[in-house]
UniProtKB/TrEMBL annotation:
Protein family: Belongs to the 'GDXG' lipolytic enzyme family.
Protein's name in the database: Alpha/beta hydrolase fold-3 domain-containing protein
PANTHER family registered for this protein in UniProt: AB HYDROLASE SUPERFAMILY PROTEIN C4A8.06C (PTHR48081), ACETYL-HYDROLASE LIPR-RELATED (PTHR48081:SF30)
Ranges where the Alpha/beta hydrolase fold-3 domain occurs: 111-312
InterPro entries tied to this protein: AB_hydrolase_3, AB_hydrolase_fold, GDXG_lipolytic_enzyme
Pfam families listed in its UniProt record: Abhydrolase_3
Keywords: Hydrolase
MF annotations from Gene Ontology: triacylglycerol lipase activity
Length: 339
């Protein structure tokens, strides 16, 4: 009734009017864990406006960041009772991430992980944080793909490498026992892998978990505006992640479904669980994919966490909400893999 009474505001030119929003302050939610409150209260990412324009510049930045990330991994591996070792599958560098205990019902299952980082960040072991969390909290064996990035290679190198690992896994594991997951650019790559698998006539995995996917790098979506300078990780639609994606695309059409998978045909996709937060700049990217999946008749589940900015559900195993997020993903894989 209220929506009907409100009507549709139109600008003078007949187009829907732009809503003018007054400046406001956003308090930290009181109904989340103290650990998450600290993340929410953190200042904006100081690197949000690092707008590098070449692959070489991005690699320098990525290496500096990676050096810091890898120092946190030994403690996480120890806490979660997980080991990881580097391997090569069909010429692609990967990390085999294995929990000390794998329950009997998971021993014939395999999860493939594609890391995030706007197609430019988290090379090497620095890209395995999410894989470690999944292995340790979900008790699944995980293969994390260390795909090529600029300046070594540009689009579609990341997708090509992920597909090589997927195809190799199809020769050793029943597709219904395979799951694929990733966050941000990794979430987009999960969706891109399904589009490529359809193109090539490959069997689909049993389930996927594309978290807060970079599903539209044309900066289309409501939350690119509503959550700008609210998301303290990505911060702005015109920030570092946009710049990184443009460099990776290397002149290709940004609406190509293998770069912006929300524009692809999702009929026939496997069951999917998507995770995001109310302050996530990519909340709309996630919601739009969920709607696209449902419109295609796909069993799709959407998890939205209070107050979280981009990808904060995969930061630290000591944050209760992060453990809860991986509990939901584990439950989803448990439900769908092997069936």
């Amino acid at each position: 009734m209220f929506a009907a009474a409100q009507g549709i505001a139109m600008a003078d030119n007949g187009a829907p009017a732009t809503l003018q929003v007054p400046a406001k302050s956003l308090p930290v939610p009181t109904d989340v864990s103290p650990e998450l409150q600290k993340l929410i209260a953190a200042p904006l990412n100081p690197a949000w406006n690092d707008l590098w324009t070449t692959g070489e510049q991005w690699r320098t930045a990525a290496n500096a960041q990676a050096a810091k990330v890898v120092t946190t991994l030994p403690a996480m591996l120890k806490r979660l009772h997980v080991t990881e070792k580097s391997e090569t599958i069909d010429g692609v560098k990967v990390y085999e991430v294995t929990p000390d205990f794998i329950p009997p019902e998971h021993r014939d299952k395999l999860l493939i992980h594609v890391h995030g980082g706007c197609y430019e960040l988290f090379p090497g072991a620095s890209g395995t944080t999410e894989a470690i969390l999944m292995a340790g909290l979900g008790h699944y064996k995980v293969i994390s793909v260390d795909y090529r990035m600029p300046p070594e290679a540009y689009f579609p190198a990341a997708l090509d490498d992920a597909m090589k690992v997927y195809k190799a896994s199809l020769t050793t594991t029943d597709p219904k026992n395979l799951g694929v997951f990733g966050t941000s650019a990794g979430g987009a790559l999960v969706l891109e892998m399904m589009l490529r698998a359809k193109q090539e006539g490959l069997r689909m995995p049993g389930a996927i978990a594309p978290g807060t996917p970079m599903s539209d790098i044309t900066k289309t979506g409501d939350s690119f505006y509503t959550n700008e300078k609210v998301d303290n990780v990505l911060v702005s639609r015109d920030g570092f992640c946009d710049a990184a994606a443009v460099v990776y695309a290397h002149g290709h059409d940004l609406k190509d479904p293998l770069l912006s998978p929300v524009y692809g045909d999702m009929h026939g996709f496997p069951p999917a669980i998507l995770t995001t937060g109310t302050r996530d700049l990519l909340l709309s990217n996630t919601v739009r994919v969920h709607r696209k999946l449902r419109e295609a008749g796909v069993d799709a589940q959407l998890e939205v966490f209070e107050g979280m900015s981009h990808a904060q559900y995969q930061v630290d195993d000591r944050i209760p909400e992060d453990r809860e997020a991986f509990g939901e993903i584990t439950e989803f894989f448990d439900k769908h893999l092997g069936h």
